[in-house]
Amino acid sequence: MKLSVLLQDIVPSLLQTDMEITGIQTRAQDIQPGQLFLAIKGYAANGHDYIKTALDKGAAAVVAQNNPDRLNRVIQVENSRRAAGIIAARFFGNPSRDLFLVGVTGTNGKTTITYLLEQMFLAAGFRCGVMGTINIRYNGKHVDAPTTTPDALTIQKTLAQMKQAGITHVIMEVSSHGLDQFRVDGCHFDMGIFTNLTQDHLDYHPDMTAYYHCKKRFFTDFLRPGVNSPRLSAVVNMDDPWGARLAGELDFPVMRVSAETAENSRSMEVRVQDIMDSIQGIFGRMHLGSDTMGFSSFLTGRFNLENILCAAGAAYGAGVKPIQIQQGLAACNGVPGRLEKVANPLNRYLFVDYAHTPGALESVLKTLKQRATRRLITVFGCGGDRDRTKRPLMGKIACRYSDVTIVTSDNPRTENPDQIIEEILAGIRETGTSVTSWPDLSNKDKRLTYADFSGVICHADRTHALDAAVRISRPGDIILAAGKGHETYQVTNTGTIHFDDREQLAAACAAMAEQFVPITWTRNDIAAALETSPATDTHNDGFVFTGISTDSRTILSHEIFLALTGDTFDGHGFIPDLVTRGIRGFVVKTGTRINSKEKNTAPGSGPVVYEVPDTLDALGRLGHFQRIRSGANVLAITGSNGKTSTCRMARAIFQTTFDTLATQKNFNNEIGVPQTLLSLSCAHQWAVVEMGMNQPGEMSRLSRIAGPDICVVTNTTEAHLEGLKTADNVAREKARIFDQAVSGSVAVLFNDDPRVRILKDHARNTPAIEKILTFGSDDTADVYATDIRSSGGMTRFLGHIHGETARFHLQSPARFMVFNALAALAAAAAAGIRIPDMQAGLAAFAPVSGRLSIQTLPGGIHLIDDTYNANPASMTQALVTLAEMAKDPATYGTGRTVAILGDMRELGPDSEHLHRSVGQTAAKLGITRLYLYGPLSSHMLAGALAEGMAKDAVFHGSKQEIEDRVQAFVRSGDWILVKGSRGMAMETFIARMQTLLHDTVSKQGKD
Description:
Layout: H1 3-6, E1 23-25, E2 35-38, H2 51-56, E3 61-64, E4 74-76, H3 80-91, E5 100-105, H4 110-123, E6 128-131, E7 135-138, E8 141-144, H5 152-164, E9 169-173, H6 176-180, E10 191-194, H7 208-222, E11 233-237, H8 241-249, E12 254-257, E13 270-278, E14 281-288, E15 291-297, H9 302-317, H10 322-331, E16 340-341, E17 349-353, H11 358-371, E18 376-380, H12 390-401, E19 404-407, H13 417-430, H14 444-449, E20 455-458, H15 462-471, E21 478-482, E22 489-492, E23 495-498, H16 501-513, H17 523-530, E24 547-549, E25 559-562, H18 575-580, E26 585-589, E27 608-612, H19 615-630, E28 633-638, H20 643-654, E29 660-662, H21 672-677, E30 686-690, H22 698-706, E31 710-713, H23 721-724, H24 727-734, E32 745-750, H25 756-764, E33 769-776, E34 783-791, E35 794-801, E36 804-810, H26 817-830, H27 835-844, E37 853-856, E38 862-866, H28 872-887, E39 897-902, H29 911-924, E40 929-933, H30 938-946, E41 954-956, H31 959-969, E42 975-979, H32 987-1006
Parallel strand pairs: 1-2, 2-3, 3-4, 5-9, 5-10, 6-9, 10-11, 11-12, 17-21, 18-19, 18-21, 19-20, 24-25, 25-26, 26-27, 28-30, 28-31, 29-30, 31-32, 32-33, 33-34, 38-42, 39-40, 39-42, 40-41
Antiparallel strand pairs: 6-7, 7-8, 13-14, 14-15, 16-17, 22-23, 34-35, 35-36, 37-38
Helix pairs in contact: 3-5, 4-9, 4-10, 11-12, 12-13, 15-16, 17-19, 19-22, 20-26, 20-27, 24-25, 28-29, 29-30, 31-32
C-alpha cells in the first residue's frame, strides 16, 4: 500500500516522495525491508530511541512525533499513537467497516458481557469473534490476550483476520488505557455498552472525573450519530450513577438498562420483574422494548443481572430475537474468573473472582453475603507495584462482609508480600478487628474446632491460605478466592510461577473428600454383619476389604465379591475368573465350592468365603450394618409419583447443612438401597435414600435395611397394579416403610392423598413413629403452599412451615412439583434445617433428566423430556404442564402442543380404562397433536376421539412413522412432550427429535 494513502489527512502537507509499504511494525527489531516503523513512546521503552535501528534494518519510512537527529525518511506527526491506529486500520483495509463491532467499556463487567453477548450472537447464527481481557477468540481459535485492549496494530490485524475467516460480528473490551492511548482509533463501532465506573486505575488517571471523561470519549468520538454508521446505538447501565450521567450527556438515543424493579424503572427500554437471584443463579422475566421473555442464567448476583441486561439490550439492538437471547443466556455456563464456580464434592460453594479493586470486591462480597446461609470465607490479597491506596480499603471491605477473612498474596511482583499484607491489615485494624494467629490444622480434631471459627488470619503463601479456607469450612459455607480470577500464574519478586486458584481449591477439596471414603471391612466386620463365620479363611495377614461389589466387570482388587442371582443371571458363574484375577473374598450361596487352586499361589493364600442362605438378603444385611456403624441418619422417600424428584430436592436442601449421601441413578430397590448405604463413611451425617417397590413385602424389607429416621410417602396412585391389584393396596404397601424405622422417627405424609388415612393409621400403630408431619395444598397440613406462580420455566410459591412463611423458588414450570418440594421441606423441618437453608437448597434443585426436563432446541422448538416412566397420574400432570407452558407468553410459544405418548405398563385389569382416560385428558386440554406408540396406547386414541378430538389430530403408529409426522408438522415455537413407561424406551425419541427438529427448523428458515 502506498505511504501517501496511509498518511492521508494525518500529515498536513503532501509527501515529496511516495513509496510502497509492505508492512507496519511498532518494534524496531521486527522491521523487514520496505516496512513502515511507527515510533511510539511507551512506559517501559520509547520507540523514538530505536528510529535509527529501524532505518538501518531497511524501514521504508518512520512515523514519529519528533526527529531530533533530523534523519531522512522520518515523517513527523502530532501524535504517533493516534496516527498508529488510523494507519493500521488503513493498511489492513479498514476491516471494522465490514464488521458489526460492539465495544464494551466500564470498570467492571466487561469480560462477563462479552461472554454473554457472544452466546447470544451465536444463538442467532452470527459468526462471532471476541477481543477481551482473557483472550482473543473466533471460530474455535483462542489466543491469550496480554492486555484488556491490545495495541492498535494487533487490533486491526486481528479484525482483518476475523473478517477473512468469515466473522460477521465482533465484541471488543475497550479499557480506559486503550482509549487514552488511542488504541481503538481507526475502529468503526456500531454499538457501545457502558457497564459502570468504580475506583480503579487512579495510579493512571488523576481522579474519578478524569477517568469518567476518558470513558465518555468512546461514546462521543466513536458512536456519535453520522460519524461511522447509521445503525449505531449505545446501551447504558442506568443503575450506575456515572451511567445515568452519561446517558443524560449524550445527544443521541440511548438504550437504557435497569435491574431495578421499582415503578420508575418502567420507563427503561430493558428491565426485569419476578427475579429469583440465589447462590445457584438468576431466573425471572425480562422486558426488551415491547417484548417480554422468561430467562435463566447460571450467573449469580445483582451485578451479574446488570451484565445480563446490558448484553441482552445490545443483542436486541443488534436484531437478535428474544428466543435466541434466551438460548444464549442458558448456554453461558459461566465466565472464567468472574464469580466462577468451582465444582467440588464437599457441598461448599466455591467461587473464584477477578475482583482486584475496592468496588469490585465490595460488589462481589455484598452479592455473596446476601445469599449466604452459612459463613462467607474470603481469601484475597493485593497486587504489588499497583495503586497502594486500595490496600487498606480492600482490607476494610473484606472484613465488613466476611465471617472469615484470610489475607494472602496476589501478584506481589517486585514488592515484599509481607509488606503488602501489612498495608491491608492496617485497614482491617482501623475497624477494630484483631488478627488471629494462624490455625493449627494438622489433625482432624483441630479442623473440627475451626469449623466454627470467625475472624481474620493471614499467610503470605496463597496455597496455604486456600487450603486453610477449605479445611475450616463446613457444608453450606461460601469460599471466595478473589483477585486473580482466570489467571494461571503468579508474579512474585523471584519470578513468575504457575498458579491457578481453581486448581488449588480443587486440590484442597480432593484432600478433604478423602474423609468420605466408605468405611472399610475386616473379616470380623463381615462376619458380624452376616452373623456367620467364613466357611473358608486361610488368610492371617490382616487384609482389609475396601468395599462390597456385585459387579464382576468393575470390581476392584481390594473389594469382596457378593454373588447375586436372578431370573436371567447368576453371579456365581463369574467366581472362577475372579479367583484367577486375585479377588480375595466372596459372599456366596450355601454349598458353593470355590477352587482356589485355579490361582497359582502358595498354600494358605486362597480367598476368604462366606456362605449364606440368600445373597440378596446378605447384601441387605451388609448395607444395614454399614448404616448403623456410620452413625448417619437416614431419610427414606417412597411414593407412586415424584419420589426421585423429591429425593433430589431433599438432597439439595440437606447438603446446605449436613454432609449428605444420596441415592444415585435408580438405585431404589433391594439391590440399590444397600448399595447406596454401603457408600457411607464415618463423616456422613445423613443419607437420603429412595425406595421403590412393585410387589408385596418389598417395602418392609427395604425399611429393615435402611432403618429410617424420617419416612416420606409422596403419594399413592394407580401404579404397579399387576402386583398390588388396587390403589388401597399400594397405600398399605407404601406404609410398610414405617415398619423398621428407628425409635423416635417422623412420618411425612401427603395430606391431599385420598388414601392418607391408611398411611396415618399404619404410622400411628408403629411404636417407632413419634410424630406425623403432613404437607398439602391448604392450612390443614403442617407444611403447605400458597401464591403459586409458574412463568418463564420456573415456579414461585409461599411456603408455610410450622407457622413460618417464606418465598421459595423452584427451577421447574410444573406446578405439581410444588408438592414434591413441600415433601422435601417437611423432611427438612423434621431434621431441624433452617428456612434460609431450605430456600437455598430448593433453589439449587435441577430437574432430573427424563423427568419434565425442558430444553429449547436451536430452532426455537421446546422439548419436554418426561421419558423416565409413566402412570395415569404422572401422565395427567405432564399434559397439564405441556398445555400451561405453551400458553406462557414468556416462552415465546406458538400455543401449539404436541404429545408423543407411549404405553403405561403394570396397570393390571384397569389398563384399558386408564389409558382411555389419558386420551380424554389430552382432548380436554386441547392438545394440538397426539402421537401414540405401543399396543396399549391405542386405547388413548379411542379416549381422545370419544372426547371430541379431530381424527387428523391423533395418530397411532411406529416410532419411525411418528418421527416423520412430527417433523412434517412442527415449527419454531411449538411445544413437544415425550412420555411413556420405562419399558417403552421413549428416550430414543428425544435424541431423534433433537436432530430432526433442528434440521426441520433450519430448512424452514432457508425456505
